[in-house]
């Protein structure tokens, strides 16, 4: 059975979403020039909740599930990602490494749901792991062991959040993300006051210019509200096998935007690492789709 092709306007919408998600790493770097990382993350989730929570019905998920997702995504994923991107990893490489959440998600599915790992998934993991190893060999100002470790923690937290969201069942994902963000902002504000201090917290808010606040709103409205709404709309109208592979373009946009907008060099070693990691992600995502017509034909 052939895979469904997207109408041109739907394909354009999907490309806009992955472009927003990819270039968002550049926006994060811009925002970190004015806000400390935990303060920036707290503001992002505050504006993800307000005012959207007043217009979206609470999803049919337990409060403990929403709380777990909010803390994992807010503190674990974006808190760690923002800290890493202050000094220890470049935006382009961060957009690449965080996609390893795919393999953590597979690992959780094996542990919790008893899913069996398949041969192509092992090969995909080895490819991606070799890419990360290549980054470790070439650690410098653009990627440090600390930065790589923090982004891997962010990827692990993202995968954990995916597992929690799956346990919530079939819910409106935009509403779920907005209401879960209620539990992201308070611990981030508390951690910001604890580790960054009141002077840094208050002065960054008072002295931030329009571009800094635009970065916050882009995180909340563009990346979260628009991104999740458009992606959910596409998934409701097309098979996941048609939409999901397009997410492979997120690190492509991330590395490209970082090179164009921030002057991040695309050196040979970096492109080799990207090819290995993206190769692993592509194999994991596309192999079942490519194999399906042959299985159906048989």
Structure description:
This protein is an all-alpha fold. Helices cover 78% and strands 0% of the residues. The protein has 14 helices and no strands. The chain has helices at residues 8-32, 37-49, 63-87, 91-97, 101-113, 119-137, 145-167, 173-180, 185-196, 198-207, 210-237, 240-243, 249-262, 268-297. The N and C termini lie close together (11 Å).
Summarize the structure.
With 298 residues, this protein is mostly helical.
Structural class: mainly alpha
Give the percentage of residues in beta strands: under 5%
Count of helical regions: 14
Uncertain spans = none
Number of domains in the coordinates? Answer: 1
Outline: globular
- Give the H and E element order: HHHHHHHHHHHHHH
Largest sheet: none
Helix content range of the residues, please?
over 70%
Number of strands: 0
Q: State the separation between the terminal residues, measured CA to CA.
A: 11 Å
Q: Give the C-alpha Rg.
A: 19 Å
- Overall pLDDT, averaged? 89
